[in-house]
Amino acid sequence: MAIEIRKDSQIVEVATAAARHERLDSNVVENANQLIRDLASDPNPHNKYQIAQLVKFGVNDIIKQDTNWLDNLADVKRVGFGDKAEFDVKLPGVKAFIQAKGATTPRTKNSRKTVSLETLSVSARPVINIVELQNGLANAADIINDASFQMECAMNGYIENVLKTAAAAWSAPYYGTGSGLVKSTLDPMILHWIRVAGGAALFGDIAENTKLAALTGFVANATSGTMQFAGNIINEQNQNAVIGTYLSAKVVNLINPLKEDGTDGFVFDDKKLYIVPTGIDAGMRPLKVVFEGDVFSTEATNIDDLSWEIRLDQYFNAAIAKGVRPYMGMYADSSV
Known about the structure:
The chain is of the alpha+beta class. It has helices at 10-19, 26-41, 45-63, 68-73, 130-135, 140-167, 183-197, 206-209, 212-215, 231-240, and strands spanning 75-79, 85-91, 111-117, 120-124, 127-128, 175-178, 200-204, 245-246, 249-253, 272-277, 287-301, 308-320, 329-333.
């Protein structure tokens, strides 16, 4: 009987969990690996297609779980293959006027524009040695982990660059820069959204967030032995590496993994601090991101060296769309 792998198959769940390095029962893992070895032991077109399906489903499950970077900074939409994502952007519209009783008032209407995004493709093309799969020297979990991570890195880098490029052209209080965190520049950017929206949150790499404590007066006078900060701030900094709030804005560390490219570089820019008003709908955010369909796969055998490969693709794109103003701010730390 031919083995059929579907997105809800247990082997997909196990391989995906293993790719995330979750704790699993050893017998469950061995059963899944044995199933893969059984498929690889008879590398006919059907069995190779099933392995490709397993990898595709696993990669799709992982990259569909957005990082907290996208969750907090973008307006994200997911559409089916062939569908277009349309984002509504509110423009200046209805106005109010003062006039004498019974006088005619000018007509105005609610106004908005619709932005449609064409998608690009992010792809990974792992080459797999069938013999190693047969012997257990290679496993699907590693392939899923590597492919999903690299695809996420490529997409997130592209999306972040779209935002950074646009934000650098904004004016105060939506964009600011300085060597380190300059209080006189950053504070007005935060206070703007507290005044307008009633609150704000700060999102940044931990390297930037740890600098916020110093802006509160987090220093001690070594000569007199007196403290120039509230005692709870030093405890909070020691326990969490960052303070929980600054100027009433919640401080959130953005997850920022290392790139797997032989360098010690980070996936996201660790010199940026984003200020986002709280309590607004995600649709107000200027960064628009679309994912079209799920990850899809194509597999083939290279006739020259008999290597077998899987191509994985995800359609996506990002753009900036705003009305009168961008409903967020970006501070760029220019220090080395």
